[in-house]
Structures
1.
Amino acid sequence: MASELPRTLKVLWGVAERPARGPQPTLSLDRIVATAIEIADRDGLAALSMARLAERLGCAPMSLYRHVANKDELLVFMQNTAPGEPPALPPGWRDGLATWARALRGVLYAHPWILQATAGRPPLEPGQLAWLDRGLAAFRDTPLSHRERGDLVLAALYLARGEAHINAVLLSGTPDVTADYGALLARFVTADRFPALAESIADGAFEGDEPDNSFEVGLARLLDGIELLITAKSG
Amino acid sequence: MASELPRTLKVLWGVAERPARGPQPTLSLDRIVATAIEIADRDGLAALSMARLAERLGCAPMSLYRHVANKDELLVFMQNTAPGEPPALPPGWRDGLATWARALRGVLYAHPWILQATAGRPPLEPGQLAWLDRGLAAFRDTPLSHRERGDLVLAALYLARGEAHINAVLLSGTPDVTADYGALLARFVTADRFPALAESIADGAFEGDEPDNSFEVGLARLLDGIELLITAKSG
DNA sequence: CTTAACTGCGTAGGACATACGCAATACGGG
DNA sequence: CCCGTATTGCGTATGTCCTACGCAGTTAAG
């Protein structure tokens, strides 16, 4: 039964045996993953090639394949490690979920490549599950069903991911296009073609540099909506 | 001034001149983009190579570069075309935004590759702006500020994108791992390590096959929260 | 008819992931 | 103590990409 597990999961959960024969490994999975995360953080996911990673580690490219089945598996390991420990939550479901979502967003800002590395399957990494667990814990003292809790934690996760996706891309984008985004918008958006958008632009809704408002605004509304549900169930 | 525009934007907005000299083009940008979308829809973004695209079009790979500066530009064109026209919205901001978000989610289910093709800059394509415009239009008769409208439309967009990201990936994932996700979860998740998660699993919150609930549940809560804001501003 | 612009495309180069197999290494059993 | 064996690092080679460059054929303008 355990032998039918994909190799990736075995390694992730520490089920893989460590028979100590042969030469001392000079490379370790931890070092490989940590260095890979470093490269992806600094230069983006596109800059992470097995060759560059090996160069940074001072080994030959093919040496990596003794510790990692392929590049996709490396990405899974990276996604497992990069988030780190989820934050401790303050008491109260509202502050708890808000803290959790903001911390998650912080992780995505620090490691924007996570948003590009598509999982290809539902989360089974301990690192991801630890965050999911912590998010669910925020609802500990509420009358919500477990299914509702899961759905609502995911909704908060979507907000964090979505906003980070747009903003992380903005931060790493070419500044010359990003800078006068408003000017370009105003140039193309005419009232006859995009009436509502033109109105918003004329109102200055796209000026200023706080595009991350959409996260806090969306989160506040979501929390309000959850509060309605909770009080309805409590009363 | 117009000459300083990136080529990609010129083509997108139809600003590019069409001096009619030389041979009749047998290829057209529309046909290239449509075929590329077809391939990405059917076989995934990874299967879309310039070579395969050319083969499907019956031309040589390098011929494509007469109509498209590079592969990234092709992806921008695809992202501009694939969403199509945004839906007509029913009266009332609540039904309007819900209709908009569900339609957007439908587009992402039909073209999951959109979620992998990272934009690299804020949206400036007419196709994307048409959807943004339609979303803003849902708030036409509300007392919300234009900035609030933008943030809330984005929040709804995040929900749709986030849920589609997880589910589109689920649908295209390897079924053997996806099928008994609950069994794998139950095997790894222990109460001492992931207390809240273990409780949810024991409660059966991860059984059944309606993971898309998180979209509708999150959207309903978000709409409730917006309603609170609107009534507060109206009264 | 000449000229200039424009199209399709053949060639080639460079980056990349990775299958395969070999040599060196170090532990376990005899 | 020594031999077999598992294990590590890695050199070579293959196939797949994207795409720079330039040539040849085609068509409209003057």
2.
Amino acid sequence: MNISARSDTAQGKRLLMVAALKLAADSRSVTSLGLRELAREAGLNPNTFYRHFKNIDELGLAIVEDVAGQLRQPLRALRYQAAASVSEASEVAPGGTLHFERGRRVNEETVRLFFNFVAEHPAAFIIGVRELHGASPALRQAVREVMKGFSEDMVEDIGKLALLPGIDHDTVSELATAVTRQMFQMSLDYIEATSDQREVIIDRAARQMFMLFAGAMALKGLQPLQAMISQPKIRKSSGA
Amino acid sequence: MNISARSDTAQGKRLLMVAALKLAADSRSVTSLGLRELAREAGLNPNTFYRHFKNIDELGLAIVEDVAGQLRQPLRALRYQAAASVSEASEVAPGGTLHFERGRRVNEETVRLFFNFVAEHPAAFIIGVRELHGASPALRQAVREVMKGFSEDMVEDIGKLALLPGIDHDTVSELATAVTRQMFQMSLDYIEATSDQREVIIDRAARQMFMLFAGAMALKGLQPLQAMISQPKIRKSSGA
DNA sequence: TACCAATGTAGACGCTTGTATACTCGAGGG
DNA sequence: CCCTCGAGTATACAAGCGTCTACATTGGTA
């Protein structure tokens, strides 16, 4: 993960942010980084820090904002990519496409793409999750805002892709918050897992998220649930 | 939260653990505490630290073990208390008790009792969640083990209280892991929330957990789900 | 009684840290 | 051409840190 190299950002500032990202990811938390430690890593004079930041917290905030800006759209794109790939597949596949099965597959595919994405940007997720529960209130708040943003994106995407038909907005919002939290948390497991374990994690995560969605449907009007139950092959009017 | 005052534990050791618990809870993470800082808070000579611990990580491990030992049984007791209170209530309440409704109420009551418990031991949960994602691998591992233990307790209790009938052991285990994680995470929200917000959090948490359980039932054999659907007043053989 | 191990204290060391003050350099505008 | 200003550097200092070695006190035990 790099820091976006905008031309209006002094290189010293950028170097410090990159150094912080690196050090924070593979050892300590951002808040506990030393100013001189940072400067050393960045190959700069300690005092250069003061040219750009008042303290470490401010550095942390800058990083969180920058990284969040870089992740936001790609994360949304994952969902549309997942939905598209499922649609294509089901055009070829035999039988009619049910909401149930489509939802399940979009969900699973999104989870898979998400973890792929995580593996490409580990530092961002490590720092995010760590600072979400970290020592600095300012950073905690910032990360919380970012995750809230991600969650709202998710609500919008769920609506546009009609993944939870018939579920009211508040419930979807609640689900999105829970899913975002859980997925971020699991992203750390994924990062430090071997590739064998990774498959298990993907599987678990997908099943878990789908349970949430299924539960929401089941507890809602219960009509959507009846629709869910009616599967392509087995079709009973009233079960045992 | 205090450290258990066992007679075989030197008082200096205990004082240091108490000091660490306090400092870690309301400011930084355990790992980033200074040895002298600790000694100052405990009113001891800095060198006393070396008499009992090799380094800060070792102190952290001792705290995690001690606190986990203190929390384990009480956390289990919450569930039995919740189940008991629901049973009593439903003996008085009119109409037959359905699995569905009983599960919902036991769940809600457990969540409520859990958060009460959290409010009584905030330091333990703050440190637990923080170190779960903290900088020290040793502490992360230790906290993970503790939570795994809590999760296994939960699986056993769910079995004994018959809260998820018909769900296979692996699925229950998976659910318990997810629920444990999510509840610990939310415990931090609860701790720093005002009492108005706390009600909302309890509500959300209970609904969220119940969605997971309901989802598990729905996705399982689907027969238990049918049983769930049949509610006391409305009863349809085949829905819309 | 004498010893020993456990516990706690005292003082000193070499290093690192954050921060303040003062200097250098290059680009852009009047 | 000079002046200014943003960006980076050099040097210095007091304070805090972890750790080392040596000493004091205690309770049990041979």
